[in-house]
Design goal:
CATH architecture: 2-Layer Sandwich
Shape: globular
Number of strands: 11
Strand content: 25-35%
Largest sheet: 5 strands, mixed
Distance between the termini: 55 Å
Radius of gyration: 18 Å
Bound molecules: cytidine-5'-diphosphate
Oligomer: single chain
Helix content: 25-40%
CATH class: Alpha Beta
């Protein structure tokens, strides 16, 4: 059976993307990025001196990421405050962003990246990374390249780009039981070197299918980076 996407998208088609830079005036850098109904806003503060002093690294700057899903962002109210999930996503987000930032340029300092998901419909960590990368560039932080993130899914035999929640929850009936049948693989790529800075796997995938997923992720990321760059260019033009 050929898999049909619930919103009739092609397998390599992402949801509608919205990308905007400079949305929070008080922040040093800020951005919004959405994949369809998954919407992330990001505020960046820094580089600024890190206190308490014993946390300072005399060699380089500390990058701190805080991912949070707003209580009102999901169908069933999410309990406010950090969770194991948000701690994990904050950690992988920081690791996805670190390779592009010149952290040695700001010894003893900190850059704080606050990622808030105001509406969630899967792939929120990817939307958050895309917005964070734009917000860091907007803050004027020296970066070698941008970071671009997208989730690739395997549903039945289909390899698809940018999973929505309904697709993540896709099930099949096996031996009379409903079974989860979607695999979700969030990726992040560095925009120029095309190196992978995030790859996670929720589900199962064969080696050959993983290669197909990486290929689709690369192709899709190229489209995303163009959108990120356009948004950054627009804010630069508006300033002049
Ligand atoms: O959002 P992402 O795909 O990066 O992470 P996930 O942990 O795989 O979560 C998938 C989706 O589940 C989220 O985007 C939300 O739509 C939903 N979710 C939820 O409804 N309530 C939560 N407490 C956490 C996630």
């Amino acid at each position: 059976m050929t898999y049909k996407r619930p919103d009739k998208r092609e397998y390599d088609e992402m949801r509608k993307i919205e990308a905007k830079v400079g949305i929070i005036k008080r922040a040093d850098g800020s951005a919004l990025f959405s994949f369809g109904n998954s919407k992330a806003i990001v505020a960046v503060y820094g580089p600024r001196k890190l206190y308490p002093q014993h946390l300072q690294n005399p060699q380089k700057c500390l990058l701190r990421c805080y991912y949070d899903l707003a209580s009102f962002s999901v169908a069933e109210r999410k309990r406010p405050g950090p969770s194991r999930r948000s701690t994990e996503i904050s950690y992988v987000t920081a690791n996805a962003l670190k390779p592009v930032i010149d952290l040695e340029a700001f010894p003893g300092s900190v850059i704080d990246v606050y990622i808030l998901i105001i509406q969630a419909d899967a792939s929120t960590r990817c939307a958050g990374i895309n917005a964070a990368s734009m917000a860091l560039a907007h803050a004027g932080i020296p970066m070698k390249e941008l970071v671009t993130s997208v989730s690739i899914g395997k549903i039945g035999d289909a390899i698809v780009a940018d999973l929505a929640k309904e697709e993540e929850d896709y099930t099949i009936k096996k031996d009379g039981k409903e079974m989860k049948a979607a695999t979700d693989i969030p990726f992040a790529f560095l925009s120029r070197s095309e190196k992978i800075s995030l790859m996670q796997l929720d589900g199962k995938i064969s080696y050959d299918d993983l290669k197909k997923a990486i290929k689709l992720a690369r192709k899709t990321s190229k489209k995303i980076v163009e959108i990120q760059e356009q948004a950054l260019k627009k804010v630069k033009e508006d300033k002049t």
